[in-house]
Design brief:
about 900 residues, nine-stranded antiparallel beta sheet, six-stranded antiparallel beta sheet, 31 strands, Multidrug efflux transporter AcrB TolC docking domain, DN and DC subdomains, Multidrug efflux transporter AcrB transmembrane fold, alpha+beta
Length: about 900
């Protein structure tokens, strides 16, 4: 090859190129981001709407349906899921593969803005659109303890800690759970309001009028043009107390403090965060897509150590979850495997070549090929993660192939003594340059279609395929440029005497035995062909009987215990029951390092509050320090909790990559989704499927993503009475909301710069909500007459769904199951057999869910990629040999590799 000939005739240029390769290779390596996994999300946008006080059916009808009807016309739209629950709507819009959700974000927000007039007026702010996915999961979780005064700790976190961490390069967001902030609470006394004939809406309006700040334009003052501002906002609690909310018949103002108790207080928490019954704050840090997880977490931990030292022990920070530890440990494991592979490859080369200098040349080819790969990774934006390093490790055995062929051919000519080193290199490169190129291409083309896979499977395999391609491309350049260069510099000027070594004699013996076996096979070709085909068919049949899962489960030393208590549980009741579960965890899991329990909220990355929900995050000691795996611990704990807390639905979920996969798939394990427009029929069928799943021997626990046991109190208004009395329906609803639940109506900043929300509530529900409450709540007609709410409304209790789910606007219920092991195939097979003999009711259809759905979606593109790779390999060989028949023989032999695959799966 001309390139090889030029390489040995221009050593200075090649030497400089070698230096450039080393410098830029290490620059590319050290400058790349480090993360556990590349983003494996489907391109998606989440739209979150808060509708306080609304039930799931109202949220679906008044919010979700309106938004969904608009979103289906979005460009690059693929599919859509939604959850309508009490007070909240969450819609996930999925886009076509290859779409950038950030490019779609403005369009989604524009569509939302255009629909604001159609949405309920009392939404809590406008619907929020944000790019969703696994990038919203925290990379670092830590607790903050500072005594019993959580309010003081909250002030420190908001004023000092959050700004400091937000300035660290790569940090996207810091969210803190468990904060307590003082608010100005106005508790209206219904008796005083009624006695003075003051309406609730009148109080709200006048507080807003009194707390005014308005730019007035510009004015000429003392020869200067100055901005003029009206400064009528509150600056103290006394200003709020003194607001005139009405007047007596003699014109004396009625102050707010005359009809209400105004105090600064910590509001009742919507949820609690505790560890061993002690309240604390828990912070979650997420990173930007370009953030380096190792550098970010190192900087944050250094900052926390500094802050703890500055506080003199008043503040204590404890790391709960640190993804950088998992990332570094996983990457170190892969790196150790790679180094072991390099050592073994060099040892094999020493055995076969028997020459130290030749081995040294081949040894150089491995790191040089990897340096080429690092430069390519930096140029293509591929991070150092578990998948990309796995690709590099997998390439170690392949990157030396071309170099060995080139060096062996050079060495073969050189040791004859008839040719100089230069002549040997010239002849060898002419003979093997093209075969090395063809050999490299036949391997590279296999990974090209894999690198172009889309969806989640593409996100996982893309980095592996691309790093393999880059390393192999680099190995070709090393083989034809640097190996000849090193051979010219390192081979001895006098060919060594060839001595017969023990290893050579052994290989000669193997070669003779192989020749005899080959001769026998050719003489009995029909028999060999029948045996091989039979084993191939048997192997293919065996594959159908093997278990299946998407990716093997990992042990990242943490897991989650999800608890769902009966509908109607308060946060305090959930807190008491979850404390019992936490106690069981502490007693049953000696491997536990820490446990944090969240009561009154479900474990979603958007953190929706649900009084009857709770979850605990359990952090274990490292794998090397315990005998039981996380899966064994979870399995033993599942039954123990179920026995001790029978009124709760318990689900255990592995952390780490399994949790990430569960987020992407909507839940790990087995899942089946039922679709129908008839909610009652849908729920009946879901219960039937759940009851059958519970009997499956491979199922640990089951879950249904909705329930009919939710209850709702409804105030049914008499519209005729409202119209006759001249009472505005919205005013009646607003009055009821303020007096029962309370509402934030304004904010003010005191002279110290502290900002407070102003919340108005009442004493209407101090003794619980009863029929008497309706009599105590007064509405006012247009004529100013006081009307008890009970005279225009009646109270009804109704059963309702806890949440309503949609898939592409169709109503769905998903039944999921946690399994004893990772294999989902047997559960799927038994469920299919059950549905064949007990079909779903008419009008109800089913879809796969969980990991099953992911497997079914991944198989077609993977099979297509393999078939394309098969064809590309044949194409390269046809071009190389300029024959059709000989490459066909090689291609036909490829399926026989299934035999080795099956034996490996059965063995391990």
């Amino acid at each position: 090859m001309k390139v090889s000939k030029q390489a040995i005739r221009h050593p200075v240029i090649i030497g400089m190129l070698l230096i450039v390769l080393i410098v830029f290779g290490f620059y590319g390596l050290t400058g790349q981001n480090i993360e556990f996994m590349s983003d494996i999300n489907m391109p998606s946008i989440i739209v979150l709407s808060l509708y306080p006080g609304a039930g799931a059916e109202d949220v679906e009808k008044e919010v979700t349906n309106i938004l969904e009807d608009e979103f289906v016309t979005l460009p690059n739209y693929k599919s859509m899921d939604s959850v309508s629950s009490n007070s909240m709507s969450m819609i996930t819009i999925y886009y076509q593969d290859g779409s950038d959700p950030y490019d779609q974000l403005d369009e989604v927000r524009y569509r939302i803005t255009s629909l604001l007039s159609d949405l309920p007026k009392n939404l809590e702010g406008d619907p929020l659109a944000l790019v969703g996915g696994a990038s919203m999961l925290p990379i670092l979780t830590f607790s903050i303890a500072g005594g019993k005064d959580i309010g003081r700790v909250t002030s420190y976190v908001q004023d000092e800690l959050i700004p400091a961490i937000s300035q660290i390069q790569g940090v996207a967001e810091l969210t803190v759970h468990g904060q307590k902030e003082l608010e100005a609470f106005v508790q209206l006394r219904l008796s005083d309001l009624s006695a003075r004939k003051i309406s609730v809406t009148q109080v709200v309006t006048l507080i807003g009028y009194a707390n005014s700040r308005l730019p007035l334009g510009t004015a000429e003052y003392q020869g200067k043009t100055l901005d003029l501002r009206y400064g009528g906002e509150f600056s103290s609690l006394e200003d709020l107390k003194s607001v005139a909310v009405g007047y007596t018949e003699t014109g004396t103002p009625i102050r707010l403090e005359d009809v209400a108790t105004v105090t600064l207080r910590y509001p009742d928490p919507a949820y609690s965060v505790e560890s061993d019954r002690a309240s604390l704050l828990v912070a979650n840090v997420t990173k930007r897509s370009d953030g380096n997880i190792v550098k970010i977490n190192k900087a944050i931990k250094a900052l926390l150590e500094e802050e703890e030292e500055k506080s003199g022990g008043a503040l204590t920070f404890s790391i709960i979850g640190d993804d950088s530890r998992t990332t570094i440990a996983s990457l170190n494991t892969v790196i150790r495997s790679g180094l072991m592979g390099i050592i073994m490859a060099i040892l094999v080369i020493v055995l076969f070549l028997g020459d130290t200098r030749s081995t040294l040349i081949i040894g150089f080819s491995i790191p040089l090929s990897l340096l080429f790969a690092f430069i390519g990774m930096a140029a293509m934006g591929i991070t150092i993660n578990l998948m990309s390093l796995s690709g590099l490790v997998s390439s170690l055995g392949m990157v030396v192939d071309g170099s060995i062929v080139m060096l062996e051919q050079i060495y073969r000519y050189y040791r004859t003594g008839d040719l100089t080193v230069t002549q040997s290199i010239d002849r060898a490169s002419d003979e093997v340059g093209s075969p090395i190129l063809a050999s490299t291409l036949t391997t590279v083309v296999v990974f090209i279609p894999i690198s172009m896979l889309s969806g989640i499977i593409g996100s996982i395999f893309k980095d592996i395929a691309l790093t393999l391609i880059l390393a192999l491309a680099g190995s070709f350049l090393v083989a034809i440029i640097f190996v000849p260069f090193f051979a010219k510099q390192l081979l001895r000027p006098v060919p060594p005497q060839v001595k017969t070594r023990r290893f050579n004699r052994m290989m000669d013996s193997v070669e003779r035995k192989y020749k005899r076996a080959l001769d026998w096979s050719l003489s009995n070709s029909a028999f060999i062909l029948v045996i091989c085909i039979s084993i191939l068919v048997l192997s293919a049949f065996t594959i159908t009987k093997l278990g299946s899962t998407f990716l093997p489960s990992t042990d990242n030393s943490d897991f989650y215990v999800h608890m769902e208590f009966p509908q109607g549980y308060s946060v305090q009741e959930s807190r008491e029951r979850s404390a019992l579960v936490e106690g069981l965890i502490r007693s049953e899991v000696p491997e536990m390092q820490d446990v944090i329990t969240y009561s009154g909220m479900g474990d979603t990355f958007l953190g929706g509050n649900s009084p009857n929900m709770a979850y605990s995050r359990v952090v274990l000691v490292p794998v090397a320090q315990r005998k039981r795996s996380v899966h064994q611990i979870m399995l033993s704990l599942q039954g123990r909790i179920a026995d001790e807390v029978p009124d709760a639905t318990i689900r255990l979920e592995n952390g780490g990559f399994d949790k990430l996969l569960g987020l992407v798939t909507g839940g790990g394990g087995y899942g089946i989704t039922l679709v129908s427009e008839d909610l009652s029929l849908l729920f009946m069928e879901a219960q039937r499927i759940q009851n059958h799943l519970q009997q499956d021997p491979a199922v640990v626990s089951t879950r249904v993503d909705t329930s009919f046991d939710a209850s709702q109190l409804v105030l049914e208004m008499d519209r005729d009475s409202l119209n006759r009395l001249g009472i505005n329906s919205y005013e009646a609803a607003l009055t009821s909301r303020i007096l029962v639940e309370g509402m934030d109506v304004a904010t003010f900043t005191d002279t110290r710069g502290e900002r407070y929300s102003i919340r108005i509530g009442s004493d209407a529900t101090e003794k619980g909500f009863t029929e008497d409450t309706l009599n105590a709540i007064q509405l006012y007609s247009m004529g100013g007459t006081s009307i008890p709410l009970a005279s225009v409304a009646k109270l009804e209790m109704r059963s309702t769904l806890s949440e309503i789910n949609h898939t592409d606007r169709a109503k769905t219920i998903t039944i999921g199951a946690s399994l004893v092991d990772e294999d989902t195939s047997l559960v799927l097979q038994r469920m299919n057999e059950y549905l064949d003999s007990n079909p779903l009711a008419e009008g109800v259809s089913s879809l796969s869910g969980g990991v099953i759905q992911l497997i079914e979606e991944s198989i077609p593109p993977v099979v297509s990629a393999l078939l394309i790779a098969w064809f590309l390999v044949y194409t390269v060989m046809v071009i190389q040999f300029e024959r059709f028949r000989q490459p066909a023989i090689i291609i036909v032999s490829i399926p026989f590799c299934i035999i080795g695959v099956v034996l490996g799966l059965l063995g391990f």
